[in-house]
Design goal:
Radius of gyration: 26 Å
Order of helices and strands: HHEEHEEEEEHHEHHEEEHEEHEEEE
Helix content: 25-40%
Shape: elongated
Largest sheet: 5 strands, mixed
Mean pLDDT: 83
Number of helices: 9
Number of domains: 2
Distance between the termini: 96 Å
Strand content: 25-35%
Structural class: alpha+beta
Number of strands: 17
Length: 301
């Protein structure tokens, strides 16, 4: 009978431990808030989606009723100034970090005084001389944002709360290229030190302008791009370089950013080039798809 008694005692002990587990794992709001402040107060984080607005609310699974997305160089990066854990939510006060692109260093730079370091995607601190243009009171007020993440169900638990945070923001282990629009992916993967992923063969050869016998496409309709409010107010001028394929019909496809500018101008360049019309490139007198590079200039007159 002793082995049976021993088995029963082990089972009783295991049941007792399991029944105690929630009490052991449960933590007070203050304990969870302390961990959040240690990990996130003063940190600069990337949203998984660059949602617009000065008030963003998410459920504990990272879903949001906010649906309007903006350029990620204006809306995706948030400097967290303060964070609290309440009976109903994680509450954060922060400021959006505008990003510029340093062509020589091939890295993004914060336009304001906030910076961040991410694995493979370093954001350089602001140039003090340039930052003065972006740190005026009006622009700073427009950049403020309040983020609410509803607390996960059940008793307070640090890991569950952190999991909710990482459903809204990118963790250090998440590649930035996974969260950006497709036309950014090639550039960001390059900054992360990754090789470009080649698309699946479409069955139609795309020619280069440099190939013998290929006549490059000629633009016949090139509307000017629109400025973003942030770039205009900051008197920011730049050139965005894009690659794209001009189809045999003279339409634009497969746009990719080769050299960005930041401040949302890259998305405006992409939107503009999508509407361009071309006389198609030709080979042996017939229209063929040709890959080209185009420059989109943003100048204030």
């Amino acid at each position: 009978m002793k082995p049976l008694l021993r088995a029963i005692s082990y089972a009783a002990f295991a049941a007792a431990v399991l029944s105690m587990a929630p009490a052991v794992l449960a933590e007070t709001n203050a304990e969870v808030e302390k961990r959040l402040q240690q990990d996130f107060a003063g940190a600069t984080l990337f949203l998984r989606s660059s949602l617009l607005g000065d008030k963003l609310q998410f459920d504990s699974e990272g879903r949001s009723e906010n649906t309007e997305n903006g350029p990620w160089t204006l809306g995706a990066v948030i400097a967290i100034h303060d964070i609290h854990f309440t009976d109903s939510a994680i509450e954060m006060e922060g400021e959006r970090v505008w990003l510029l692109y340093e062509t020589k260093q091939k890295k993004f730079r914060s336009a304001s005084r906030f910076g961040s370091n991410r694995r493979g995607s370093e954001i350089l601190p602001a140039d003090p001389r340039e930052a003065r243009r972006f740190d005026n009171k009006k622009l700073a007020k427009n950049n403020r944002v309040h983020v609410t993440i509803l607390r996960p169900p059940g008793e307070p638990n640090q890991q569950a709360v952190l999991d909710s945070m990482w459903r809204v923001f990118l963790s250090q282990s998440t590649e930035l290229s996974e969260a950006v629009p497709g036309y950014w992916r090639k550039l960001i993967r390059g900054l992360e030190g990754k090789r470009e992923e080649l698309p699946a063969p479409s069955g139609e050869k795309v020619f280069s302008c440099l190939e013998k016998g290929v006549t490059p496409p000629k633009p016949i309709y090139q509307p000017d791009p629109e400025y973003t409010e942030a770039a205009r107010k900051s008197k920011y001028q730049a050139v965005v370089v894009l690659s794209c394929v001009v189809t045999r019909e003279g339409k634009v496809s497969d746009i990719a950013i080769e050299r960005p500018a930041g401040l949302g101008l890259d998305e405006r360049a992409v939107d503009s080039v999508r509407t361009w019309k071309f006389e198609p490139g030709k080979k042996n007198g017939e229209g063929v798809p040709v890959k080209i590079q185009v420059e989109v200039e943003f100048h204030l007159y």
